[in-house]
Amino acid sequence: MIDWAWVGDHLDDLAWRTLQHFLFAAIAVAVGFVLSLGFSIWSLRRPRLRAALVTASGVLYTIPSLALFAALIPVTGLSIVTAEVPLILYTLLIFMRNILAGLDAVAPDVLEAADAMGYSGRARLLRVELPLALPLVIGGVRLASVSTIGLVTVSGILGDRFGGLGFFIFEGYRHSFPTEILFGALPSIALAILVDLALVALQRRLTPWAAAQPAGGRIGPAGAS
Amino acid sequence: MSSAERVAFEHVTKRYPGTGAGNPGAVEDLSLEVPAGKICVLVGPSGCGKTTSLKMVNRLIEPTSGRILIGDTDVARRDLIELRRSIGYVIQQVGLFPHQTVGENVATVPRLLGWDGARQHARAAELLELVGLDPGRYASRYPSGLSGGERQRVGVARALAADPPVLLMDEPFGAVDPIVRERLQNELLKLQERLAKSILFVTHDIDEAIKMGDLVAVMQLGGHLAQFGTPDEILARPANDFVARFVGADRGLKRLALVRVSSVDPQPVTTIMLGSDAAEARRRAAEDDFPYVLVVDERNRPLEWCRDDAIPTTGTVAGAEGLPAAPILDRLTTLKDALSMLLASDVQAGIVVDDTGAVRGLITTDMISERIRASAERSAVPSSPP
Fold it and tell me: What count of other Cβ atoms lies within 10 Å of the Cβ of residue B195?
């Protein structure tokens, strides 16, 4: 049922498409994270701005991905920008929600103690609030990575130069060739799982204190959102 | 070591927008002075403005009018960050940084002040030692693994890290159980004997105020200072009905809190070292008419009560068959606390220990009532002016 000959002939293609898939996702997650972090910090103590930004990112999230890719073609053509913009926009809601939830979860007594010890506002944000938000922030990175890796396949609609492993899915569909569909889908799932596991390991590394946190502690486990 | 400095409130008022005087947390024309090296306790019902007053010293809250001096300098004229780094701050919830180890938490202010790593490390170890936590065991742990009492000790160590002349403590022992609280209070008083900081201490508990304060400021709703004086003055001569009610009808009993265990000579107790010869222990136990002996460790610290007739006839004295060695009375325990602990204990005798935890002797309820009678007779004599 699986055409192993095709697989053997396309190992190079599979490897390169996997790499492309990973890079497309990584760019979107990285840009989305930086934008969201900026928006979150900017709006953290501005409740109206914050509500507006969270609502806007929520609205963007509701636009179907195929429609968004299609809508951008007249503006940015069949370019990498068209492929990346929707991926980035979809990460905003996940990141904004998790970063803000992480910052909100920092206990008021900890903030009061930090002020009273003589932290400046900036130092408090960088050395107390953001480190304490880290479990939820990394939880956001995990969610955004997995969902973006899934969405990269959809960008294959833009043509052969895009889509990562999605290219095989579209190709296999066009030629009614199940092996190709399977070898587009399975590696992208494996990629998502591997990235997620790597991020879990990263989180353990970066937040050794959270492991010691008893269950039901102040800051919930990562990815709980 | 930096010397303590006085803290003076001069006509300090804090009003919150949209409301007049009398709303919770407001402070009205507060003037008082904490002399250098003394503990001043602000006490009053919730909403009386005591915490607001405290937070105006390190400017977590800015006063509406009036000024607060540390030494001779108005805190409003000092750089905010520099001011806060020079004031120790301890709160009920402790507010330890969960992402930092105990050692890093303690070294917070030294780190902010730019001390080098080795000096921070040494200072953190020194302070953990000072509050009775073994640095080897605690410095690299995270706060989430500590008990309430341990957290509170770390909080005190952190507040003392840069040797500030002034310490602010907001209900520091409010979240721990009564036995731990009593111990932490004694530890703070012992620390204060050595460090002599100017301490502003907030509590809603009049017993704690009487025990801890060199001076007590009783505040009432609306942020008015109802009375400011020594604990003895507050108990002996409440300035008005509010203070009298707040202090309570059992003022006579509360004055017991002014007397410490150290003022009573403990009676001797037969102690037996764990693992010593049982026959010898039996013989010694029979020498007094107290029905228990106290089993101690090699450093003479109490382990348990053992009934005279429960000592084995042969062999050695093993542990874990008697009653817990309680209550343990420290020289700084008040007679009021001692009495209440005695009434709740199995053996009606309190074990007096010295600062190393070694047994000094026993105090019984009879000895406490004797002491009450003696001081009642003394206070019947008109007191001479100070």
Answer: 16
